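Handout, section B. The chain below has 91 residues.
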Amino acid sequence: MKLPNFRLYQTQAVAGLLLGIVGIGFVVAMSFVTFRTFDSQQKVIWYNPNASGLAGAREEPWLGLALGAFSFTAALVVLFAWQRLKEEIIK
């Protein structure tokens, strides 16, 4: 199987577009799973702490919050570095 040539800007653009679409799909799916038990009158999301699966892990949310904050901060740092350090390719 031949791998795509990521030196071409068209290939990079298509890969970025596809990964963006997949990311948006995951966000939509996670939003649906999270807010399906949302109570609009009391403004809470109900869950069963005795349930099997991910609902039982809600007692320890700090690791997920820390990883989310770290990944968001890392993305901002990389974006800032790219904006400041980018140079045009001389042909």
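Note. The chain has two helices and two strands. Compare this with the example in section A.
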